Amino acid sequence: MKCMFCGCEDSKVIDSRHTEDGMSIRRRRECSGCGRRFTTFETIETVAFLVVKRDGTRQSYDKSKVKNGIIRACEKRPVSMAQIDAIVNNIEKALYNSLDTEITSQKIGDLVMKELKELDEVAYIKFAAVYRQFKDSATFFEEMSKIFKTSPSDKEKN
């Protein structure tokens, strides 16, 4: 590892620790040339994949877009950032485990909806309203009935 202060390529590791999320290792190093200390992070190199949008265009997967969509759905809900990060990590893990180089935006949306349904039903409905592009209240109600596997007449009886 090259020293950021003097450029020397020789350094020794003084301390190694896992980060909180367990996805990388933090290493404290000391330069053999100048004696100064610096920190490095070691992470797993991931294979990039493309997202195929509804209109057929392709773009690189962007974790922040998924996270921002979940944050918007969870606004004013009792959902912590740690829970949102866990959802994003679960989704990313599922995507990498699929071993596909191209993934549809629909698959990503379905994974988000599955995770949100387990976490918070209101956030799930908010996300579904945007993701499924509801045109009016009838479409919204029809879709919610399908999602919760109850017919509209069952809801009227309650």
Describe the structure.
By secondary structure, the protein is of the alpha+beta class. Helices cover 45% and strands 20% of the residues. It has six helices and six strands. The protein has helices at residues 63-73, 81-97, 105-119, 121-131, 137-147, 152-157; strands at residues 11-18, 24-31, 37-43, 50-52, 58-60, 102-104. Strands 1-2-3 form a three-stranded antiparallel beta sheet, with no helix packed on it. A three-stranded mixed beta sheet has the order 5-4-6. Strand 1 and strand 2 (24-31) form a beta hairpin. Helix 1 (63-73) crosses helix 4 (121-131). It is elongated and about 70 Å long. The N and C termini lie far apart (66 Å). Residues 150-158 have low confidence and may be disordered.
Write out key terms for the chains shown:
3-stranded mixed sheet; 6 helices; 6 strands; 20% strand
Give the topology:
Layout: E1 11-18, E2 24-31, E3 37-43, E4 50-52, E5 58-60, H1 63-73, H2 81-97, E6 102-104, H3 105-119, H4 121-131, H5 137-147, H6 152-157
Parallel strand pairs: 4-6
Antiparallel strand pairs: 1-2, 2-3, 4-5
Helix pairs in contact: 1-2, 1-4, 2-3, 3-4
